[in-house]
Design goal:
Largest sheet: none
Helix content: over 70%
Structural class: mainly alpha
Number of domains: 2
Order of helices and strands: HHHHHH
Oligomer: single chain
Strand content: under 5%
Radius of gyration: 22 Å
Number of strands: 0
Distance between the termini: 50 Å
Shape: globular
Length: 118
């Protein structure tokens, strides 16, 4: 008897989720806007990166990837700085790192990237 009860619960939950999702899409359509999740994530990553790079601490070394030792085998992971320089269209990662030293310049770079989209 446990199986039918769980099926009913799942059916009710899925209906409630559909109602919530449809009402959210209606609200977004009325506001003439879309969800910009990726750009919000990138913006938060960039602001955090600027915060970390302005301090000369261990987080700075870890974020830039300048640690001693061997790299692991296989395909290397994409570094945070590489993803941000592509998004900010900053050219080289060194330019992005130096841009973080000036807060005003860094904030304008982030704002321009957010305006342009993903």
């Amino acid at each position: 008897m446990a199986a039918p009860h769980s099926v009913i619960t799942v059916a009710l939950c899925s209906t409630a989720c559909c109602i919530r999702d449809s009402s959210a899409t209606v609200i977004l359509e009325e506001a003439h806007t879309t969800r910009l999740l990726i750009s919000k994530i990138r913006k938060r990553q960039a602001t955090f990166f600027g915060h970390v790079m302005r301090r000369e601490k261990l987080e700075n070394l870890v974020t830039t990837g300048m640690l001693e030792g061997k790299r692991s085998r296989g395909k290397q992971r994409e570094k945070l700085i590489e993803g941000l320089t592509d998004w900010l269209k900053a050219g080289k990662s060194l330019e992005a790192i130096e841009a973080t030293k000036d807060r005003k310049n860094w904030r304008t770079m982030i704002a321009n990237a957010v305006k342009q989209g993903t």
